[in-house]
Every structure is written in C-alpha cells, then in structure tokens.
Amino acid sequence: MFVLRCIECGREYDRRAMIYQCPGCSGLLEVVFQLEDVQLSRAELERRPFNLWRYRELMPVENSTRVVSLNEGGTPLYRARALEEELGIKELYVKNEGANPTGSFKDRGMTVGVTKALELGARAVGCASTGNTSASLAAYAARAGIKCLVLLPAGKIAIGKLAQALLHGAQVIGIKANFDVALKLIRELCVKHNIYLLNSINPWRLEGQKSEAFEIADQLNFSAPDRVVVPVGNCGNISAIWKGFREFHELGLIDTLPVMTGVQAEGASPLVKAFKAGKSSIEPEPQPETIATAIRIGAPVNAPKALRALRESNGVAESVTDEEIIEAQKLLARRLGIGVEPASAASIAGLRKLLEAGEIARDERVVCVTTGHALKDPEVIFSRYEKPVEIEPSIEALEKVIYG
Ligand code: AN7
C-alpha cells in the first residue's frame, strides 16, 4: 500500500486527501509505497504487455478504479551506435518518449493523474503549461469525460502543442506572462474553485512518470545503466525517474543505481546554478529564455526533489546553449532518424558537453531521455534549418538545382 508523505517534515497524510503540498510546512509531497508488501518478479513482469500498466503494483491507484489510459509507455529504447562514434562513448541509448500517445512523457503522468482525479471525484482538471502538459492533460481529460482548463504563457507555446490542447477541447487561456506566473495563477484558481491541479507538483502524476525508469531497466535486461541524462524544466521528471530506479533497486529487480544527470538550457538554468554553487535551494530566474520553450522555466517547483536526486545519485547538472541544442537535435534527426523537439535534444547536448569536459567517462553505459516529438515544434525547424527551394516545373531547372 501507499501513503502521501512530506519530503521536508515527514508527516504522512491519507491518500484520499486532495492536497498538493504539506498542510503543515508547505513542503513537497511524495507517494511512499510499502515495498515489502509488493510481490513482483522479473518472470511475472515479462508475461505482461510492455506498457506503463505492466507495473500496476507500483502505480498508486485503488484496485477498483477504472484506469484512464491511451496505452502510454512501452516506448522504444534505441541503441545509438552512430552517435557512440560521433560523441566518443562506449554504449549509448536513447529512450524516445516522443513515441507516447500525445508525443511526450507527460502521458505517463496523466494516465495516473487523471485516474486519480476520477477517484477523488473531481469534475474538472487544470494545469499551467509550457505546452506538453496541456496537450497531454487535454487528451486524457477528454478520454475521462471531464472538463479541462489550461493556462499557457501567451505566444511562447510551440504550435503543435497548442494545436493539441485546442483539438482535444480544453479551455485554453493565454496568460501575458511566463510559465512560472501562469503556474502561480492556476494553483490559486484550483484551490478556490475545486479544480484538480495536474502540474507536476501533484505527487500522483510523478508516480506515472517513474515508469520511465522501470522500462529502461526492463529494456536493459533488468539492469540499470551507469547514467541517465534528462532534460530539466520544472524538475519533476528527473525526480520521478530517480524514484523509479530506487524502487526497482529496493525490490531487488536491479543491482545498481544510475547517476542522474540533469540538463537545462543556459537561459533557464536555476537548478544547474544551485547545483554548481553547492546550494540546497534554487534562486528563481525572473526572465527565463530559450529556444527550447518546453523548459523555459525559471522557478521549478520540484527543485527540492531534483536536488535530492542529484545528491543521492552522486549526480551532475549542466546547461547548454540554444546552438548546442539545435546541433544535438540535428544529430538525433540525421544520424539516428529520431525526430525530437529542442528541449529533448538538451540531453544529447549535455552528454556531449560533459564528455568533452571529462565529467562523464567514455566507457560508461548511458541512456539519454528524449522527452518530446519533433512535430511538437515545426517552427523551430523552419527557422533554423535549410529551406526548400522552389523551381519552375522543368527537368532542366530540376537538374540545375540538384547537380549544379
Ligand atoms: C519536452 O509541459 O513543464 O523537468 O508544462 O515538455 O519535469 O518539467 C514541460 C516540460 C522536458 C521538463 N522535455 O520536464 C509543461 C512542462 C519536454 C517537456 C521537460 C518538459 P520537467
């Protein structure tokens, strides 16, 4: 079974409480499983379909619940041989979360989060978002048959994500401010009007996302890689992945734990700055800026969990420039055939930088998580890559363009 526990003061709360923070000290909450009660063997797991619900015993939903699912998870783990040579590393894998139903890892959080919303009797759900959270929540709310409200930083959402939120029928409101301000607003609104909040401050959502770790371990024949590299914005995903590895380790399903490595964009890197300064909390950045709009976040709410994950795993945090992000996006697309959005490419850009700095050893077995699909943000491609040429319809003009 499982309870809600404050990561700061340790107080525990009933799992039916509709709270997002510790009512006592305002600390972040996390879900804690009594793992000694969980019976889960490799043989049993391998009998089940490969998707998130393969790990149902480790998902905090009541047995009687109807799960709101679009068959999320079960994403590919590609061996990235062409990049091993390019970057100079022994064994590199890409866990491609863009292969989820709405094209990002957020679907893992939303299958659990929206299921929880129904369990708790919610009639409406809401979030603030840099894009992917809103696209995913809109789809899962539609599937659950409940209302969805999303607040977005106006003009700073990749067009594919905005289109998804509209397509699935969410009420979409642009806020003339950045994500951090929109998140503050939705948090206030949700409490006031009894809307269920599904940003990653919601501890249930992160439980779904920890399945990224379960799947990576599963796909590596029940072993952990030496290192997992994750793009970081609001700091939820890296915390969730670390939690997943720890649970598999405690259950004896893997023997070792990976080193967690978080990568932020240089213009939005409060976690990296806190990590490098050895601080135990972050300094919010009032004006985050990066081409990777998904991670254009200056005040990550889950920073305490991410800092803990870095500390416990002996991890690293690094930032990369927009140019490095685009270069990495190109490498993934052109050397591996994997199309990702800019934020996702931050993991490969960070790996490259840390290898060059000697922070990552070249004989490590590394998994980079690519968090969202390339089609989320076609505008970046049109503005940063070669444009198509247009010609008159003649064979001569065609040959001239191709052969000069
Ligand atoms: C592609 O959609 O915050 O560190 O509102 O879309 O858990 O925040 C998106 C985040 C990485 C960072 N990659 O994950 C949102 C939102 C992609 C993302 C992240 C996001 P967190």
Helix and strand topology:
Elements (H helix, E strand, L loop, with lengths): L1 E5 L5 E2 L15 E5 L8 H5 L30 E3 L1 H7 L3 E6 L9 H14 L4 E5 L3 H13 L2 E7 L5 H9 L3 E5 L3 H15 L2 E2 L5 H7 L1 H9 L7 E5 L4 H15 L8 E7 L4 H7 L26 H10 L3 E5 L1 H15 L5 H15 L8 E6 L7 H7 L10 H9 L1
Parallel strand pairs: 5-13, 6-7, 6-9, 7-8, 10-11, 10-13, 11-12
Antiparallel strand pairs: 1-2, 1-3, 4-5
Helix pairs in contact: 3-4, 3-7, 4-5, 7-9, 8-9, 9-11, 12-13
The chain binds ligand AN7.
How would you characterize this protein structure?
This protein is of the alpha/beta class and 404 residues long. Among the domains are: 1-37; 77-103 and 205-384, 3-Layer(aba) Sandwich (Rossmann fold). The protein is 39% helix and 16% strand. The chain contains 15 helices and 13 strands. The protein has helices spanning 42-46, 81-87, 106-119, 132-144, 159-167, 179-193, 203-209, 211-219, 236-250, 270-276, 303-312, 322-336, 342-356, 378-384, 395-403, and strands at residues 2-6, 12-13, 29-33, 77-79, 91-96, 124-128, 147-153, 171-175, 196-197, 227-231, 259-265, 316-320, 365-370. The strands form three sheets. A six-stranded mixed beta sheet has the order 4-5-13-10-11-12, with helices on both faces. Strands 8-7-6-9 form a four-stranded parallel beta sheet, with helices on both faces. A three-stranded antiparallel beta sheet has the order 2-1-3. Helix 3 (106-119) crosses helix 7, helix 7 packs across helix 9 and helix 12 packs across helix 13 (342-356). It starts with a strand and ends with a helix. The mean pLDDT is 97. The chain binds ligand AN7. Residues 104, 129-133, 200, 231-237, 294-295, 341, 343-344, 371-372 line the site of ligand AN7.
